Amino acid sequence: MEILIDWSLIKSEDQFYDVVLSQVGAPKWHGHNLDALADSLITGSINTIEPPYKLMSVNSSVNLGELKPFQIKVLSIFTEAAIEQNRDIEFCVK
Predict the structure, then answer these.
(1) How many domains does the chain have?
(2) 56 Cβ contact partners less than 8 Å away, ≥ 6 residues apart
(3) What are phi and psi of 54, to 5 degrees?
(4) Dihedral of alpha carbons 30, 32, 38, 41, sign
(5) What gap in Å lies between CA 60 and CA 31, rounded to an integer?
(6) Residue 36 sits in which domain range?
(7) Residue-by-residue pLDDT tens, the chain, 94 positions
(8) CA distance linking residue 16 with residue 83, whole number of Å
(9) CATH number assigned to the domain comprising residue 24
(10) φ, ψ for residue 74 (rounded to 5)?
(11) Measured between alpha carbons, how far is 90 from 79 in angstroms, rounded to an integer?
(12) What's the confidence (pLDDT) of residue 74?
């Protein structure tokens, strides 16, 4: 299973969460914040789609303007999820 985040299509933080959370089958009550994202990806047992899967971050070098600091934090969470030993998550940046 691949979870695809195309940064060239992301124009806001809310849009990012809509894209990612829909792909992992997050419940409606899932928070739209970085702590909630980290909890659901790293801790698990929240979303209907659980690992193994591959997080694909594409067009990561596009000019995101004000979203760049947010993107850096998201990519850090994805990296942490991928190195967590009890989770079978692969992370790829293109």
Answers:
(1) 1
(2) 2, 3, 4, 5, 92, 94
(3) -115, 125
(4) positive
(5) 23
(6) 2-93
(7) 999 999 999 999 999 999 999 999 999 999 999 999 999 998 889 999 999 999 999 999 999 999 999 999 999 999 999 998 788 999 999 9
(8) 22
(9) 3.30.370.10
(10) -65, -45
(11) 9
(12) 97
